[in-house]
Design brief:
Layout lengths: L3 H9 L4 H12 L6 H4 L3 H7 L1 H10 L3 H12 L5 H8 L3 H13 L19 E8 L8 H11 L3 E6 L6 E7 L2 H10 L9 E6 L15
Antiparallel strand pairs: 1-3, 1-4, 2-3
Helix pairs in contact: 1-2, 1-5, 2-5, 4-5, 6-7, 7-8
Length: 213
């Protein structure tokens, strides 16, 4: 069973506002949230709703669930029969567990991972962006909506520090990036300043998430 405090911290990173409140309550009054260690989520769920349910789901992942997740991260196209055999289960119970993991949102989906160089997207850059908030103006919302519409921006993260956002961008080459920067990035709503870092070589790049035992 995963430690309750670590589970709260991990889930808060997924931007559940109620879980952020739950995290504060946990650290401020551990005795009052003692049910987290007793696996009884009744009064926590009544106060924090779906966020507590998500926390419970995360904390109650069993060893077999984690084995399923680990194998699927290695090979998302593995058949249910092969998956069941590898983790030591019968196919039917394995399929039920897999469906539960999908329905609960622990497994968000399945996709193909492409070699970006092979498909003509050889340049990878990370762009730090400063977008000051303006009272009464939905600048952040407009910025976010514009980012979601641009295919070349394959990642966008809110950051702490000198800049407000970190963009992960792929283009064909430096010329293409220059055009994207001038025509798209610098014209995103509210952009005040940017700083770009170009990747020369990729040492490690994975979509796999460590599965805590």
């Amino acid at each position: 069973m995963i430690d309750a405090a670590n589970a709260i911290a991990l889930l808060c990173r997924r931007n559940f506002p109620a879980l952020q409140q739950l995290s504060s309550a946990f650290y401020a009054e551990p005795a009052g949230i003692s049910c987290l260690n007793g696996h009884t989520f009744g009064h926590v769920r009544s106060q924090y709703g779906d966020a507590a349910g998500a926390l419970e789901q995360f904390m109650t992942l069993g060893a077999l669930d984690r084995k399923i997740l680990d194998r699927l991260q290695q090979n998302g196209r593995i058949s249910n029969v092969a998956l069941a055999e590898q983790i030591g289960m019968s196919p039917s119970p394995c399929l039920r567990r897999l469906k539960q993991l999908e329905d609960s949102g622990v497994i968000k989906g399945y996709t193909a991972i492409l070699d970006r160089v092979a498909v003509g997207q050889g340049l990878l850059a990370f762009v730090e962006v400063k977008v000051p908030q303006v009272p009464g103006e939905p600048i952040i919302e407009r910025f976010s909506e514009a980012v979601l519409r641009e295919p070349a921006i394959v990642g966008c993260y809110v950051t702490a520090g000198q800049f407000d956002f970190l963009l992960k961008v792929v283009t064909a080459d430096m010329l293409s990036y220059g055009q994207l920067a001038q025509n798209v990035i610098l014209r995103l709503p509210g952009v005040q300043d940017t700083r770009t870092t170009f990747v020369l070589e990729t040492i490690k790049e994975t979509t796999a998430v460590p599965i805590t035992a």
